[in-house]
Amino acid sequence: MDPTEQINQLEADLTELGSLLEKAQRNRVKDVLTQEIKKVEKELSAKKQQKEQLAKKDMNPSVASKVAYAVKITNYAWDQSDKFVKIYITLKDVHKIPSENVDVTFTDSSFSVLVKELDGKNHQMTILNMLHQINEKDCYKKIKTDMLLIMCKKQSTQKWEYLTKMEKQSKDKDKPKMDDNAEPSDGLMNMLKKIYDDGDDDMKRTINKAWSESQEKKVRGGAGDMMDF
């Protein structure tokens, strides 16, 4: 199978995995799908790099050894207005390379960035399953000093709490679950248990001390009630 066909297959796999993740209900299933998405993203990045290397080798075999290697973009931030979600990607000297070396593609729920031959490297980034849909035809990029700005046009003016659905699911999973029929004290105990389980040794000692003092007060209070009676 040629690299182009492999890339198409991997992109289709990512789309389907994203759809499955969106429908998944159980945390274990979500975790498995998330890990698989990361594996496919890594493989897709490698295949794109391989395709580019083959293309350059065909055009000029003498420069094949100079082909840049790919790195994943991790240094970015995002913000929003009523009309756009804005992704700020910090890339030193990106304004010094030809604009055609900066390629950004959009779908209605994702975007992919490929910055070629910057500081001897190809820089790649893919954001899948954005929290809400975007108007891909109205999305665009801006190249600024040491920065690439991705402008994603919202389909509606609603505020985004997260950039992707995966982030939202991850945050929701970390929130303490409250049972509407449970006693208020049960919810507090569950929250304290989570803090205890996730805390360091100092935090656990603090909680244990507070718990012991609370129990001692209950015992003393109970004894007093019996004596008064």
What's the layout of helices and strands?
Layout: H1 3-23, H2 27-59, E1 69-72, E2 76-80, E3 84-90, E4 102-106, E5 111-118, E6 121-127, E7 140-144, E8 147-153, H3 165-174, H4 184-198, H5 201-228
Q: Which runs of at least 5 residues are low in confidence (pLDDT < 50)?
A: 223-229
The helix content, as a percent range, equals 40-55%
Q: What class, by secondary structure content?
A: alpha+beta
Largest sheet: 4 strands, mixed
Alpha-carbon Rg, integer: 26 Å
What is the overall pLDDT average?
A: 81
Please give the domain count: 3
H-E string: HHEEEEEEEEHHH
Distance between the termini: 87 Å
What percentage of the residues does DSSP assign to strands (E)?
Answer: 15-25%
**Number of beta-strand segments:** 8
Shape: elongated
Q: Looking at CATH, which topology of the largest domain would you report?
A: Immunoglobulin-like
CATH architecture of the largest domain: Sandwich
Strand order of the largest sheet: 1-6-5-4
- CATH class of the largest domain reads Mainly Beta
Number of helices: 5
